[in-house]
Amino acid sequence: MLMRTDPFRELDRLAQQLVGPGTWSRPSPMPMDAYREGDQYVVAFDLPGVSADAIDIDVERNMLTVKAERRPVAKSDDAQIELSERPQGVFSRQIVLADTLDTERIQADYDAGVLTLRIPITERAKPRKIGIGVGSGRTEISG
Q1: Strands 40-46, 32-37: pairing kind
Q2: Stretch (H or E) spanning 35
């Protein structure tokens, strides 16, 4: 069997063992991407191995909070763990949203371990043209 060594993975694994899994009072961070797509912002969180019912999404004013919990897989009594690299526990991420985003119409989808939030941009924040009126009531001063 061919094995590759990644020293950073080992450091992460050691740090996780020292600190322990994330708890509700001290959650671990989760990786995310954020980008604009048309008239909405898209935020994608990596949550592999987390069931949809273990994800909690809250918005309070302009603070978006995503929490998730990866629970241990049920093992039989005679199972012996040889290697455990997948982090377990509680994961959380908070994002401050701009006032130009419509927090009332956030859509959330969860597929293949990725939670995707689509946040529309408010109408007042979208670019718009302003028409210029041409004045027809000019008066000339003759002298």
Answers
A1: antiparallel
A2: strand 32-37
Contact at 8 Å (CB) between 87 and 72?
no
Contact 57, 43 (CB under 8 A): no
Q: What separation, in Å, do the N-terminal and C-terminal C-alpha atoms of the chain show?
A: 103
Tell me the mean pLDDT per 10 residues along the chain, length 143. Answer: 54 59 65 92 92 94 90 78 77 89 94 95 78 71 65
Q: Would you state the pLDDT for residue 1? A: 40
The residue count of the chain comes to: 143
The answer to whether 76 and 98 are in contact (CB under 8 A) is no
Please state, in angstroms and rounded to a whole number, the distance separating the CA atoms of residues 74 and 49: 13
CA-CA distance, 100 to 120, in Å (whole number)?
9
Amino acid at 63: M
Please, which residues have CB within 8 angstroms of residue 116's CB and are 6 or more apart in sequence? 42, 43, 44, 45, 108, 109, 110
Pairwise CA distance, residues 46 & 59, whole Å: 19
Q: Which residue, among 94, 120, 126, 90, has the nearest Cα to 108 in the 3D structure?
A: 120
